[in-house]
Amino acid sequence: MKKLLKILTALLLLVSLFTAAQPASVDASSKKVASGTVMKKIKKSGKLVVGMSADYPPLEFTKSVNGKNKYVGVDVELAKQIAKDLGVKLEIKNMDFDSLLVALETGKIDVIISGMTPTSERKKSIDFSKIYYAEKSDYFVISKTNKAKYTSTSSFKNKTVGAQTGSLQYTSLKKNASKYGIKVKGLAKISNLLMALKSGKVDAVLLGELNAKTYATNDSSLSLVKSSLSQAQMGNAVGVAKGQSDLVKAINKTINACQKKDLFNKKYIPAAAKAMKQASSKKSNSMSKYAGYFATGLGYTMIITVCSIIIGLILGVIFALMRLSKSKLLHAIAVCYIEFLRGTPQMVQIMFVYFGVGMLIKNLPALAAGIIAIGLNSGAYVAEDIRSGINSVDKGQTEAARSLGLSQAKTYRYVVFPQALKNIWPALGNEFITLTKDSSLVSTIGVGELMYETGLVQTATYRGVMPLCIAMCIYFVVTFILTRLLNYFERRMNLTSSRT
């Protein structure tokens, strides 16, 4: 009982240390970006880092140009103009919409230009520019076959309506769900919402006017129903961290110039509509044209997998030996590490390393954060595999090695570890295969691995299922090859063991 209490106390201490490093609240995290520092950072680095969720045509989406990914849309053009007026280069970070606020508050991005509406809740966390484009209302996107069935908001009683998590439409649905008897379904990507609509998982998707009309125009199977949900339509603005008045002033100056020339209606929106029409044509959205996307994603997936396996093996050995150590302190540290990492979701760990630890380590790349998080998580599971393997070796083997004059280190190296490795090889193989698939989780922080690139293909081609099928086949081929390699080495170990 006392031992259990000590372990629980150590775990609570570890949790408190993680919590102390994490922003305590939205208000606290917003203070991490000091007043008046973002503009200086932009000028010093010579680039403007813009965060957006590039799945929201015609405001921001992707297009394949000569096999390479290109961000296009109204918001992209505005971002280019702001960067030009500031005299710096533009860098776009594509991530889930509901991750943008955290990224801005922690300094991962300089501004948000992603069709974001300046609601009172968001204003508590960040500042906004003036409205650069205002929409009159929202629309329900439905299947054209249900056009006669759904004619108004009240038609969706006891029906499931989807919206992008973190968006104004999602907030509106949640607010009015009980009034209209609507079941709300939130997903991070609009491409996934439309795929859910076409597969019958949701009955409608609530989108902003411009976004909804653009999808309906480019997809003949969709139709629109005007929403009457009570939600003030304030339009879209640029999000900026608190206390950056000089940056807000510069952005407003650019917006005023664009509005004065009516660039949004005369140039930006027509250009985005043209790009969407080209992307949605059968000639342009062939999967063969996006082979480079999948190849790039596979490359990053393999980098993450290999690096994470190395980190996981090193940490696994260290913490397995620490847990088997007679030192109470080392044992307690190992138990806390293993139990905490195995007891928390890997997605949360990835977000914590990137946004939380990233606040302490400036300019921590998303790829590095993803590798660290997955490697740390893998280390906890590998440690338990190795510990079980060491325990499976007969104690007589250790005693015999020590009686022959071998040191403890040499005993482990030449006697214990080889036998333990053979016993736990299948378990380690399963961990490596799982780790390969878990690498897809880092797409949430904008790492261009396979699932991230698959999402870009879905947005660019307006085809939801086919890119997923290709990604699934790629994952299968990779894991199948890995399985065969692991089985080969297992046979070699068994053959060597039988000879000795």
Automatic annotation (TrEMBL):
Domain ABC transmembrane type-1 positions: 298-487
Entry-linked Pfam families: BPD_transp_1 (PF00528), SBP_bac_3 (PF00497)
Designated name of the protein: Glutamine ABC transporter permease
Gene: glnP_1
Signal peptide start-end: 1-21
InterPro entries reported in the protein's UniProt record: AA_ABC_transptr_permease_3TM, ArtM/GltK/GlnP/TcyL/YhdX-like, MetI-like, MetI-like_sf, Solute-binding_3/MltF_N
Bilayer topology annotation: Multi-pass membrane protein
Keyword Hydrolase appears in the UniProt entry: no
Transmembrane region(s): 290-321, 352-376, 465-486
Localization terms from the record: Cell membrane
Coarse class of the protein's main subcellular location: membrane
Keywords, sorted A to Z: Amino-acid transport, Cell membrane, Membrane, Signal, Transmembrane, Transmembrane helix, Transport
Family: Belongs to the binding-protein-dependent transport system permease family. HisMQ subfamily.
Gene3D superfamilies per the UniProt record, alphabetical: MetI-like, Periplasmic binding protein-like II
